Amino acid sequence: DVKVTQSSRYLVKRTGEKVFLECVQDMDHENMFWYRQDPGLGLRLIYFSYDVKMKEKGDIPEGYSVSREKKERFSLILESASTNQTSMYLCASSLSGGGEKLFFGSGTQLSVL
Amino acid sequence: QQQVKQSPQSLIVQKGGISIINCAYENTAFDYFPWYQQFPGKGPALLIAIRPDVSEKKEGRFTISFNKSAKQFSLHIMDSQPGDSATYFCAAINTGGFKTIFGAGTRLFVKA
């Protein structure tokens, strides 16, 4: 089975802190994604990467950046955390060809105080 | 803006009943429509998906009905069980693209 592992289940940070969310997948998938999940809004795409060192903006990239130095690892960075970034963050991966058939990690619940 | 509208927000069904969740989309370029199931504390998992060249797809107790002219699709869960209690998301994507658009989600509770 594909396994997508997110480093933290819960995270509490203070406003202005720099936050790193880490994600690792073990199935040699080409594509990796970061979504945020908010009640009533579903899942919204922040950034995605289709190859090492390649990244593309999703629908809500403001306030975030990403890094993909190795194929299996995709990091989400909040340069200066704000309270409106309190959310559930979900990492996903997919085989080559696009964003069909996403495999998700269990998520990181981030609280920014 | 591309949107997928999902209803209802929440649903309570008796064990053995039929659960129905509806979605509507706007962008006719979408050609792959997956449904994801999410249990508490877990990430969403692909449940079933359909392409617009068929009007129905069935996998066990789960069926997707697709109406291309109305730009609507729905998930039917037959003989609903308490273990089906979860949040369900409909979604849409253009094949080969990377941006899956998700509905807002439906919280299903199946009463024993």
- What is the SS-derived class of chain A? mainly beta
Q: Major β-sheet of chain B, in short?
A: 6 strands, mixed
Fraction in beta strands of chain B = over 45%
Helix content of chain A: under 10%
Task: Name the chain pair with the biggest interface and residue counts per chain.
Answer: A-B, 27 and 25 residues
What do you see in this structure?
The complex is a heterodimer of chains A (113) and B (112). In chain A, strands 2, 4, 5, 6, 9, 10 and 11 form a seven-stranded mixed beta sheet that branches. Chain A has a four-stranded antiparallel beta sheet with strand order 1-3-8-7, with no helix packed on it. Chain A has a single domain, classed as Immunoglobulin-like (Sandwich), CATH 2.60.40. Helix content of chain A is 0%, strand content 53%. Chain B has 112 residues and is an all-beta fold. Chain B has a single domain, classed as Immunoglobulins (Immunoglobulin-like, Sandwich), CATH 2.60.40.10. Chain B is built from no helices and eleven strands. Chain B starts with a strand and ends with a strand. The chains are: A mainly beta (113), B mainly beta (112).
How is the secondary structure organized here?
The complex is a heterodimer of chains A (113) and B (112).
Chain A: E1 4-6, E2 10-13, E3 19-25, E4 31-38, E5 42-49, E6 56-57, E7 64-70, E8 73-78, E9 87-94, E10 103-104, E11 108-112
Parallel strand pairs in A: 2-11
Antiparallel strand pairs in A: 1-3, 3-8, 4-5, 4-9, 5-6, 7-8, 9-10, 9-11
Chain B: E1 4-7, E2 10-14, E3 19-25, E4 33-38, E5 45-50, E6 56-59, E7 62-67, E8 72-77, E9 86-92, E10 101-102, E11 106-111
